[in-house]
Design a protein that fits this description.
single chain, 39% helix, 2 domains, alpha/beta, 9 helices, 6-stranded mixed β-sheet, Rossmann fold
Length: 241
């Protein structure tokens, strides 16, 4: 299968702090790939490097055959991104924000596509509400819509379900699974291990910026292991090394 995302020795230092240390991994087309780790493990920094928002200290990465260091704007133009903190512009309404995204991404039939998301994520009543007046959950819905409205080949999502209620979580999990069945690729970072075990086809474990493991979820379940227990055993062992 085609490699959609590849990191080779990716490293990021902030002064004396090593946020990500020499990480190498590949993500294949059609995967729902989960980057797992405790808070502060380097997950958000990884996504920022892979989307050209933060320049690596060392190593390299390609996303959709684009060099994230040399072509960061082209990477962001082609992928969908949901950041850790949902931040639609406070002075725009929900619809105005999607129209802004549509103009930047040169989307055809924008109003029809926007209407799909307002209905699908059940926030049509917030269409003309200023973003500053939206609840956290509704802002998350809007950020989800802007990431997928152009139907990207790859979407990178930092904690995709964190502000959703259980009903919306279930809806979104089904959407992500169906999206990858169409041959598209999802890369999520999360510390919610039960969700990762349920939805991800592959995963990697990051701790203190170091890659501890990468592989298919089915490899674990096939030998009777569960992802949360496997994760905890590796991280606890690494803490005492």
């Amino acid at each position: 299968m085609t490699t959609i995302l590849s990191a080779q020795g990716l490293t990021k230092n902030y002064g004396d702090v090593v946020a990500v240390n020499n990480v190498t991994l590949d993500v294949k087309e059609g995967a729902l790939f989960g980057l797992l780790g405790p808070n502060g493990s380097g997950k958000t920094t990884m996504i920022k490097m892979l989307t050209g928002q933060v320049r690596p200290t060392g190593g390299s990465a390609t996303v959709l055959d684009l060099d994230v260091i040399k072509e960061p704007v082209a990477v962001r133009d082609r992928v969908g991104i949901i950041p850790e903190q949902e931040t639609p512009p406070s002075f725009l309404t929900s619809m105005e924000y999607l129209r802004f995204v549509g103009a930047v991404r040169r989307i055809q039939d924008l109003d029809a596509k926007s209407d799909f998301w307002f209905d699908f994520l059940e926030f049509r009543d917030k269409k003309n509400v200023l973003c500053k007046d939206l609840s956290r959950g509704t802002r998350q819905k809007l950020m989800f819509a802007q990431a997928f409205i152009h139907e990207p080949a790859l979407a990178l999502i930092d904690e995709p379900l964190i502000n959703f209620d259980p009903i919306m979580q279930d809806l979104v999990k089904d959407y992500l699974a169906d999206y990858t069945k169409k041959g598209r690729t999802i890369f999520i970072s999360t510390h919610i291990l039960e969700v990762a075990e349920e939805v991800c086809s592959e995963f990697a474990i990051l701790h203190k910026g170091n890659l501890l493991h990468t592989g298919p979820v089915a490899e674990l379940t096939g030998r009777g292991e569960h992802l949360p227990q496997f994760f905890l055993s590796l991280v606890r062992k690494d803490r005492h090394v």
